[in-house]
Amino acid sequence: MSTLNLVVHNTGMEPTFVRGLSQSYIDVTCSTQKLAKTISEGKVLEKETLTEHAYIYFEIKGTKTPKNPAGKERTLNDWGAFCTRIKQKASEMNPQQRKSYKKCTEVLKDAYIGSIAKGINRRSPTPYWWNATINEKRTACLQTRSKLRMLPLMKNGLHVYKPEANLLE
Question: Which InterPro entries does the entry link to (predicted)?
Answer without folding.
Answer: Endo/exonu/phosph_ase_sf (IPR036691)
